[in-house]
Amino acid sequence: MCTSQQPDSQREDSLNCVAPTTLQKVLDECQNQRACHLLVNSRVFGPDLCPGSSKYLLVSFKCQPNELKNKTVCEDQELKLHCHESKLLNIYSATYGRRMQERDVCSSEAERLPPFDCLSYSALQVLSRRCYGKQRCKVLVNNYH
């Protein structure tokens, strides 16, 4: 990916050139920050373990909030979703209907449940359209909506 500053004949690709301070440096500069900028050079990450070889920084990260919440609301009730201040809704999955293995969810004893899954796969599209990017969202849970 990164071009070498040395001719191919002088490079030793088998060397392990990983700065031991990398993780701590990235954590110190970036953890819990909304944005993060790091200069990628040996002055920032410690002594140059492989002089003359080009280096790169590979960072794996996840933006917060990384808390995934689930909410179940029975038919003819209102689903109310809300996020804390400065956070917005992002719907990852949604199903409407009934799963065969979830017999105890929103059912009465007199009700005869079907022996198969009965799901509407448009629920994700409906909720995303109505709630995505908002801080609060209300949806009446029924066949119409």
From TrEMBL:
Domain of life, per lineage: Eukaryota
Gene3D superfamilies, alphabetically?
2.60.120.740
One example GO MF annotation:
carbohydrate binding
Residue ranges constituting the SUEL-type lectin domain according to the UniProt record? 1-64, 73-145
One Pfam family named in its UniProt record: SUEL_Lectin
Q: Which terms are listed as keywords in the entry?
A: Lectin, Repeat
- Tell me which PROSITE patterns the record gives: SUEL_LECTIN
- Its name, as the record gives it, is Eva-1 homolog C
